[in-house]
Design brief:
Strand order of the largest sheet of chain A: 8-10-7-11-9-12-13
Number of helices of chain A: 25
Helix content of chain A: 25-40%
Low-confidence stretches of chain A: none
Oligomer: heterodimer
Mean pLDDT of chain A: 93
Strand content of chain A: 15-25%
Number of helices of chain B: 5
Structural class of chain B: alpha/beta
Low-confidence stretches of chain B: none
Strand content of chain B: 25-35%
Structural class of chain A: alpha+beta
Largest sheet of chain A: 7 strands, mixed
Helix content of chain B: 10-25%
Distance between the termini of chain A: 52 Å
Shape of chain B: globular
Strand order of the largest sheet of chain B: 2-1-3-4-11-10-9-6-7
Radius of gyration of chain A: 26 Å
Radius of gyration of chain B: 16 Å
Largest sheet of chain B: 9 strands, mixed
Amino acid sequence: MIEEILKELNFSKNDYDKVVELIGREPLITELGIFSAMWSEHCSYRSSKIFLDKFPREGENVIQGPGENAGVIKVTDEIYLAFKVESHNHPSAVEPFQGAATGVGGIIRDIFTMGARPIATLDSLNFGDLNSSKTRYLLNGVVEGISFYGNCVGVPTVGGETHFDPSYTENPLVNVMCVGILQKNNLRKSIAKTSKAKVIYIGAKTGRDGLHGASFASGILDDNAIKRRGSIQVGDPFLEKLLIEATLEIIEKDLIEAIQDMGAAGLTSSSVEMAGKGGKGIKLDLDKVPLRETDMIPFEIMLSESQERMLIISKIGAEKEIKDILEKWELDYAEIGEITDSGCIEIYFNGECVCNLPMEHLLNPPLNLTHPEKNIKEQIKESPPNFDLETLLYDPAFGSKRWIYEQYDSTLFSNTVIPPGNGATLLRVKGTDNFIGLTLNSNGRLCMIDPFLGAETIIAISTRRISALGIKPAAITDCLNFGNPNDSQTMWEFSECVNGLASALKDFNIPVVSGNVSFYNEGKTTRINPTPTIGVVGTGELKYIPSNHFVDFDDLIVVFGGETKKEYFDFNVLPALSLDLEISVQELIRTLINNCLVKSVQSIDRGGIYLQLVRSIYDSDIGAKIENIPPGFSAEEFLLSESNSRYLVTISTDNIDKVTNIAGNEKVLIIGKTIKDYFTINDKFNLRVSEIKDIYERSFRRFFD
Amino acid sequence: MIKFGVVIFPGSNCELDTIYVISEIIKRDVVKIWHKDKYLPDVQCIVLPGGFAFGDYLRPGAIASHSPIMQPIKEYVKSGGLVLGVCNGFQVLTEADLLPGALIRNIGTRFVSKKIKLKVENNNTPFTSLFNKGEIIELPIAHKDGNYYAPGEVINEIKANNGLVLSYIDNPNGSAENIAGIVNKQCNVFGLMPHPERAYEEILGSDAGLRIFSSIVNYLES
């Protein structure tokens, strides 16, 4: 009997025995449910905690590091940014529309919970082969889900990436990052400090949807998981919009002490974490929880993951004013308990105590330590790069993703200066001279080949994209997507990736302020490539806004920075990376931009110089004449090189000497100039600008139109 | 000084940009008007902003058009007051019968967010006097239900009354006659799908939207 319950809860017999030992008795069913949620990988980070301690977390601009609903950094003395990335992989694999939609809703709640108005989201999507109808079904559903939820909730979707690799066939990755802006005084945390303060439940009524969501995300995606489709939550962006407005109004009026959204493990994790962080206890009366279904038992009420719900701890005496605001926004609410000095979570239902557990046991699960060990020999196949420049234009992975981002409102709030489609997005901060640069990137293949160097390379690529905007990378948020943590190979990949990220971040002096770990990304036959997804936020003032495409005819086209070598992401040896060089090239490009010496700047990574040339033409109607391929290279070898630490820039002939004076001759390689109407390479390759635009526009879109 | 009123429905989301343009760019007074209010404050122009009023449940604008505030707005329109409806606000105006026709699902059924080119068909209105007739301008759109539909005779009437104000150069949503924005017969109610409140400075790629707000100010102050 107990074995069946444990299986249903995804809770091991070892853990069960440990619970019995800790509390000195058999747990009640509600108590067992609460343990299973709080000790799940998703809530407790029990497999990853000890590795994550290696990340740099301090910085002069850091206001709040990991451990809260989101990280917070300073833009000015008065204005802060809150941001975080989170995965919604498992729900999206089973039901792509709702999975992605509720992923957007969940991360947005983490941001306004901090007192910040959400102003932007970005999505990192990894799918299997686009030629499979299953992949197209998943991609279409995910994009529609993001579009449906993000547009309606009123938060612009300003960037992201979409990649394809067979390792994601059964288990696509949907990682969503949200950024919010707040006035210093509105920062709130999830720490309840005052006994007798009231616990107020706000938002959607509780139903059976999303039951076991946290434990669902802590198991692999086999047939049983698919049957758990009932676990998938359903999102209501309109309700979330009301929650945003009501919550921000309540915070603005300084009426609450602590706040947390009911995300994974719903009422359980929000109540336990808020009271636990403050060293307090909490008493809940489940008879008062607004319910959507009849005959729900305490176990179900505590573990439901119904969406669009918040839990707040009010300031004593502020209850009436809070309720007035909630009524104005026509939100359901209920006072369901209070903070106590007991250090325990006590739960009552029908007058009966159904749970009484010390917080410390719930918040400190035994660590799950699998010894990291590399036990799979090179398994990745070398796929020779496609060296045909013209057919590459038809490759959907290479082609424009406009079909995706045109389904997202990206201009709401009138901050968007450099729009989606460019590797990094630039927003302005109204009322200041400051700008925000945002990017969200992953490259699982690189980390599969070499998890340490691959992870370092992701940091180099991501920060390079922010520096291409002319502003300095300030902090990162990370979503670490991996396989089963009980597998030593997975933990080796995980540990190497974390070490690589930490090493690069220390060199760059960039802190991690928030993040999320997603394990168990495995299907029946495939295991995903190790995939750290990195969100970088840059902040600062700008003297010139660099264009992301060609600006004028007769400008010099320059490859700026490191040396171009015959290095390609499709090879089994990664491009060499010197972090010192990377850091100095990024500093130089920011200097050149702020001295108005370059017109357009694009960072070079996947797809090499060639992709950036095509993008420039696509966005500008200006052509290019490439005539200076260095000796020893074919045009293809040179233009498709994916060597690190390089930018594609255009410079007016008047300024080229100034640029070489600042940067040194060896960093400036003139490869051609901008011209009218044609894209030509050494007079061999010759296409009309209109043709390039048409092909690049359709190469991805044609799979869906 | 003239004062604008911006109506807030639950689910509106373009009110922040609208209020920003009015207060910080054209520097005029602006007040929020709550959808449940039964009386209008003393304002010279009312803006129904974009967003998803009531989550677009039923049909975009359908529930909002029955809000208590719509009754005094109808009287205000009768007495000649200016009303600007943007995107979801345009949808509310058609649902409330303050403008003819309807905005149905885009051809292609998907949400479309991009910058588009528009032609100013009529500059003889309080909302477009600072444009030249025939001028091509650029504004962002972001909608799923922007496909303007009306029966042929209604469209003929709109045209006969010079009601066609903005038309799309490359029709993004299937709108009849490329209609992007219209005024009523009395020329005091203007609805358009593009977002002027997102195009008010060069850093945003276009300031054409600002000229709509400036036209209103010009009209009211002269």
